[in-house]
Specification:
- Strand 22 and strand 23 form a beta hairpin.
- The strands form seven sheets. The protein has a ten-stranded mixed β-sheet, sandwiched between helices. Strands 22-23-24-25-26 form a five-stranded mixed β-sheet, with helices on both faces.
- Helix 5 runs parallel beside helix 6, helix 6 runs parallel beside helix 7 (about 165-175) and helix 13 (about 420-430) packs across helix 14.
- About 30% of the residues lie in helices and about 20% in strands.
- It has three domains: about 5-35 and about 45-220 and about 385-515, Rossmann fold; about 235-360, no CATH class; about 520-640, no CATH class.
- The protein has about 650 residues and is of the alpha/beta class.
Length: about 650
């Protein structure tokens, strides 16, 4: 980056907790993204307060039932995501396309560093701005943090980017989500290659895909084409059903899986070539012996490990004896070939080819999961990592522009729009058919349109939440005009040329993010965050893992927050949504009453600000003032008052 980084000043500003976190990160990964103002950027999300949203009835689209499922929110996306507090931990997939910092679209408000609640969009960040990369990172970091909190434990985020900020975004994603949770780096062909002398033609963009927890996430399936299904046949009367030829080898070379396999038909030894056998040797031996011929491991002195040879071939002294062993194996294998219903490993239609395997349609996933190159329509399902999607399967930017023009007219002003093919593919792979999709940078509404189309294709019940800034006075009015019009026309079948197209079953509710602080949501957030902080702090102090609490509904109890496996209760002295209280004789009596109601036995684990009353039934844990101040819960806190209107 071109701007200077004041190391001494930034280091001096770090607390002990910050330094410990930084040290742990360096010791575990050895790589960290540093930039001026990072500490502030990491804390910004905690300062943003939820707002009251207003339903704009005249802009709702579809039936009441459909309106209740989907939502288009007009407003700044960081504030909007904080406002969507009840959806935290509920989103299956976030698919979004943030501004690319190319000097044309990205705006930054310098006041966000101190007040992220400032509603202004800020000025356009040009390519000449020496701090443009830092500004982009500072804007993205808190938004990525909030996006992570919105995801289910099994949730996935797919974020589009180009080469301008690809590496910075990758490092941020590694830091926020964890490098171990990276699912894919998708390189998709956005436009046709151009022959430009002396230059490199930029034809691709990227999608970085991360899981909240890779262990819990699942990569879904894509529908197979008719062409792909036609490759499955049943030439041998296989009892499982139709199958097609597959490969017994895996990518790359492995010294331990480079051994030879002897054919029972020809006696020839076959090697995996520049690849390696994909299954372990014992499994390969069982498949070979399914032809009725016994095999054994034999050292051929070829330096490639012990081969799988027909039993008796090695000990034969003469070529005549070896030929006899092969002839005997040929007779048995030929009879097995004539019987049909061949084993999984086979030697071609007549038994004279190299070893291959049968891939049964019923055993292969009904859809093809992504492969190394999407152009290979019939590839077998393999793990998705770094992949390339050609324009024939992911669409081009030009396709996206034409799709938008067809819905709203040609004067929309968008030069690049993500194609429907690309977004639908992402949704198919990482959102279940009943899942929730969030797009915090909705733009023209491609994500919601893709959700609606997929639901109409496969009878799905996916839902969407879109967030788009609406500020007509600044010239940024996509939410209320472009985004709304596109979705309305897609659902109604209306087009600007007056023609009618097939309607898409669906609808959405339109909400405007107001300037009024949502005090009720603030208190809910504060209580939940405080519970997480004090419990984690307590159990770390005790050098034990966090308790597996069975939580209770906040509406049922004032103080009781949960019970552990031993039946002991945990209480937070929270005075009717006001400031955190103290353990007094009066609050203790309420604790006892709630414990009795919940059938909870002593000791009672009580968290409060002060201990004014003591009992042998209570294990008291003081909540430090620094924790309360950090969460905005100090008694003089700005947001402990009633609704605030900026």
């Amino acid at each position: 980056m071109t701007e200077s980084f004041d190391f001494d000043r930034e280091l001096a500003s770090l607390s002990r907790q910050d330094l410990e976190k930084l040290a742990r990160g360096l010791m575990t990964s050895g790589v960290a993204l540093s930039f001026h103002g990072k500490r502030t950027a990491m804390e910004i999300a905690k300062k943003v307060r939820p707002r009251v949203t207003r339903r704009e009835n005249k802009l709702h689209v579809g039936s009441k039932e459909h309106q209740s499922k989907n939502m288009l929110i007009e407003g700044e996306n960081l504030q909007a995501m904080v406002t969507l507090y009840k959806y935290r931990g509920q989103v299956d997939l976030i698919v979004t396309d943030p501004p690319y910092n190319t000097g044309q679209y990205f705006r930054y408000n310098d006041r966000w560093d101190n007040d992220p609640n400032d509603p202004e969009l800020g000025t356009l960040v040009t390519k000449e701005d020496g701090s443009r990369h830092t500004k982009w990172i500072k804007a993205m970091m808190p938004r990525l943090q909030i996006m992570k909190s919105m995801l289910k434990p099994s949730g996935v985020i797919a974020i589009c980017i180009d080469d301008n900020e690809l590496f910075h975004l990758g490092m941020m994603m590694d830091e926020v989500f964890g490098e171990n949770n990276r699912l894919a780096i998708i390189n998709w062909e956005k436009t046709t290659r151009k022959n430009q002398s002396g230059t490199v033609s930029v034809t691709t963009e990227y999608v970085l895909v991360y899981a909240k927890n890779k262990v819990l996430s699942k990569t879904g399936e894509l529908d197979r084409s008719k062409k792909s299904n036609a490759r499955f046949k049943n030439v041998d009367g296989d009892k499982i059903g139709d199958w097609k030829q597959g490969d017994l080898t895996g990518k790359g070379y492995s010294k331990t899986a480079d051994y030879a396999i002897q054919s029972p038909f020809t006696g020839e030894f076959h090697y995996p070539g520049i690849r390696h056998w994909a299954n372990n040797q014992n499994q390969m031996k069982r498949w070979l012996e399914a032809w009725g011929v016994d095999y054994e491991k034999v050292d051929l002195k070829d330096g490639r490990g012990k081969a799988l040879a027909i039993k008796g071939w090695k000990i034969s002294k003469s070529s005549a004896e070896k030929k006899s062993v092969i002839q005997s194996a040929l007779k048995i294998a030929s009879e097995r070939l004539s019987d049909g219903n061949w084993p999984l490993l086979y030697w071609g239609m007549d038994g004279t080819k190299k070893p291959v395997r049968k891939n049964h349609r019923e055993l292969v996933k009904k859809g093809a999961v992504p492969t190394t190159f999407w152009a290979a329509d019939d590839d077998d399902p393999i793990k998705l990592d770094a992949v390339s999607w050609e324009k024939s399967v992911s669409g081009r930017s030009r396709d996206g522009v034409e799709e938008l023009s067809g819905l709203v007219g040609v004067d929309h002003g968008f030069e690049t729009v993500k194609p429907m093919k690309l977004i639908k593919k992402l949704i198919q792979l990482w959102c279940p058919r009943t899942g929730l999709v969030l797009d915090p940078y909705a733009g023209s509404g491609t994500t919601a349109h893709a959700v609606l189309e997929l639901n109409n294709i496969d009878d799905g019940d996916r839902r969407f939440i879109l967030i788009e800034q609406g500020a007509p006075e600044k010239g940024d009015k996509y939410a209320r005009s472009l985004t709304w019009t596109r979705l309305k026309n897609a659902i109604s079948g209306e087009r600007p040329n007056g023609k009618k197209f097939e309607k898409l079953d669906g609808g959405f509710e339109y909400r405007l993010l107001t300037k009024t602080i949502d005090a009720k949501t603030v208190l809910t957030m504060q209580r939940d965050e405080l519970i997480d902080v004090v419990l984690t702090s307590h159990w770390e102090t005790q050098r034990r893992s966090a308790p597996n609490l069975t939580t209770v509904a906040a509406n049922d109890y004032q103080y009781l927050i949960g019970t552990d496996a031993a039946g002991e209760g945990y209480f937070l002295i929270w005075d009717d949504g006001g400031p955190v209280g103290s353990l007094t004789s009066a609050t203790y009596q309420k604790v006892v009453a709630e414990a009795k109601k919940a059938n909870v036995s002593a000791p009672y684990h009580v968290y409060a600000r002060y201990e004014m009353f003591q009992s042998q039934n209570v294990r008291f844990w003081k909540i430090p003032d620094k924790i309360l101040a950090h969460l905005g819960l100090d008694e003089n806190g700005e947001f402990n008052s009633e609704e605030v209107d900026y």
